[in-house]
Amino acid sequence: MPSIGAAVSELQDRAVLWRVGEIPASEVVNAACDALVAGLDSPGLRVLAACTAAEADYDVHYLLPEALDELGLVLHPAASEAGQEAAARALARRALACELKPWELTFRINQRYGHELPLTARLAELDDEYAFLEDGADEAVARINAEVIAEAHRLAAVHPHVPAESTDVPT
């Protein structure tokens, strides 16, 4: 069973990834269920976790903000810099968990934010480097992959989960 802290992080990450269109709403509902199992609880979280797969696409939009607010978590607007940075950090954590290949992380970041988001500018540059590789450039791919993973670690280390009106990280 995951710790409450891990469940909070996963719920926050899935919420932001859903908000930017990276994952389906059903994954947010699954994260709410996992959070309940880990010991996190609130009325809104219970209602969110009770959604069926068929209801998730419609209901998560309405239920998620309240559930996160009850837990002291923030769901930034997707177009805001804070929302973009939260999504980038969540994608970086997915890459570190081997859910995304290094090139997939750079591609998604570059496609979504280009070189405009200062936090992820280096990942966008690395995506450009992937694009100019020639067939058989295994050493270059390995070097770029290593840089991408280092950048993902840097992004994941940025304080990702600050509750509203507080400087404490939920545990």
What does this structure look like?
The chain is mainly alpha-helical. The chain is built from 8 helices and no strands. Helix 2 (25-38) packs across helix 4 (53-70), helix 3 (43-49) packs antiparallel against helix 4 and helix 5 (81-96) runs antiparallel to helix 6 (102-113). It is elongated. Mean pLDDT is 90; it is low at 160-171.
Nutshell version of this structure?
By secondary structure, the chain is mainly α. The protein has helices at 4-19, 25-38, 43-49, 53-70, 81-96, 102-113, 121-131, 138-157.
Q: Tags for this entry?
A:
single chain, 171 residues, mainly alpha, 2 domains, 8 helices
The percent range for strand residues is under 5%
Count of domains: 2
Shape: elongated
* Helical segment count: 8
Q: Please mark out the parts with pLDDT under 50 across 5 or more consecutive residues, or reply none.
A: 160-171
Count of DSSP strands: 0
How much helix, percentage-wise, in residues?
A: 55-70%
Structural class: mainly alpha
| SSE order | HHHHHHHH
**Oligomeric form of this entry?**
single chain
Please compute the radius of gyration using only Cα atoms: 17 Å
Main pleated sheet: none
Distance between the termini: 15 Å
State mean pLDDT (0 to 100 scale): 90
